[in-house]
User: Fold this.
Amino acid sequence: MVVGMVVQTFVLTGMCLLVYIVGLIWNLDGGGHWDPAQVDASAMTDDEKNTAISRARTMTILYIVFAELLRSYSARALRVSVFGCVGSGEHRGLGLFTNRYLQYAVSSAVLCTIAISLIPGVCDVFSMVPIDGREWGLVIGLAPVPFAADEFCKAIYRATGFGARPKIAVNGSTVAVTTTATATTTTTAPATFTPVTVIAPSAAIGATTSPVPSHAIDITQPPPQQPVGWLSGTPAPHS
Assistant:
């Protein structure tokens, strides 16, 4: 988990900086130059500079939202991939549409985000501005990168066995613990006895019942080896 968090931190941070820088270059001087050396921001007014910054900021916010929404499909498991053949274990594949509640959440978040960025007045509250098709294409095109990075890390985990947890198989009272690096260790679970409260029957109808004295029978102990004495009326010895 820690390794995945570190990887996602660098990937998402790097992609956000890339989207912001590209969006800023595209909107400075109105030329859309790829080479920052060709951009002459000194000839721009303050309003034009603020517009360029607002568009670049809007692209970055939209990228964070869409990238994290896509990554939520992969974040459902630390080692199991979203893709893969149907089977068992780490290679069974989660499936993209197996969690319907995730579909509801992602769809609602996408619609709300688009509405916030397009509706006049609402976008001003979040310091966002409408962006053009080229900028939308950059945001949507790079959104799957964190998702792909997460799936790539999972593939390495499965191939190397990094971070694998012991597999525990319970068969009756026998517990088998298997890991990839050590042999199987088998232990037998001890037998347990549940204490039970026993109330002696009344001596006659209407008589007050009373509990069996604590020295008469200890039901928290295992039953005696020879229960025949109970049937014959002779108290059986206790261990």
Q: What stands out?
A: Residues 25 and 32 are 6 Å apart (CA to CA). Residues 195-239 form one domain. DSSP finds seven helices and three strands in the chain.
